[in-house]
Structure formats: C-alpha cells, structure tokens
Amino acid sequence: MDSFTALADPMRRSILEMLGHGPRGAGEIVTFLQQDARISAPAVSQHLKALREAGLVRVRVDGQRRIYSLDPAGLDAMDAWIARVRGFWAGRLDALEQALREEDGDE
Fold first, then answer.
1. pLDDT for 37
2. What is the 3 state secondary structure string of the chain?
3. How many CA atoms lie within 13 A of 77 on its CB side?
C-alpha cells in the first residue's frame, strides 16, 4: 500500500496526527481511538500495519510493548512528491497568468 492510499482512511490519519505529538504504545493508540469511535484492538492493529507497510510509521519493541512513531523517511517521500506537483502547477499557473495578461493587453 502506498502512502497516499494509507492516508485515505480517516482512522489512519488520526493515528498519524496522534503520533505527530510523539511516540505512543499500541495500547495507548487503541484507548485514544476508542474514545471517539467504536473500534476493536485488532482493527487498530490492522491500521498500524497498513501505516507501517506504507512507510509512514515505525515500531520498536520495548519489553512486551510495541512503541509506534512517525517514520521521517516516509513523510519525506510524501513531501518530495507534493513539492514536485506543486512546482509543476506553479510554473503552469504563472504561464497562464502571463498569457492572460498578454491577451488583455496589460503588458
């Protein structure tokens, strides 16, 4: 699953927002999500797995706990893609603006 597909799910976006405040244990993530939605621990586990496979979060084992955190490499890849798209459109929109000005005789 790619990063953007993983983020299509609002529950996964909630998890990423939570992890944006710092690493959290899996149990803490489940408890947080259950406050707003009826979701089982196995369902949260599947969401965490999807985010991990998409390269957006990483997990480390601390005794019997699994601690999840954002994976900067996955987020950097998304930033790079967004920058490429933004750069493409910025140039195109500048050219359109210039063409419209020339058509109106402003320049």
1. 80
2. CCHHHHCCCHHHHHHHHHHCCCCEEHHHHHHHHHHHCCCCHHHHHHHHHHHHHCCCEEEEEECCEEEEEECHHHHHHHHHHHHHHHHHHHHHHHHHHHHHHHHHCCC
3. 11
Angle between helices 26-36 and 10-19 (to 10 degrees): 130
What is the distance between the alpha carbons of residues 80 and 12, in angstroms, rounded to a whole number?
21
CB-neighbour burial class of residue 48 (10 A; exposed 0-12, middle 13-18, buried 19+): buried
pTM here? Answer: 0.75
| Cα 21 to Cα 69: distance, rounded to the nearest angstrom | 9
CA-CA-CA-CA torsion sign (86, 87, 89, 94): positive
How buried is residue 57: exposed, middle or buried, by Cβ count under 10 Å (0-12/13-18/19+)? buried
Per-residue pLDDT reduced to its tens digit, 41-70: 999 999 999 999 999 999 999 999 999 999
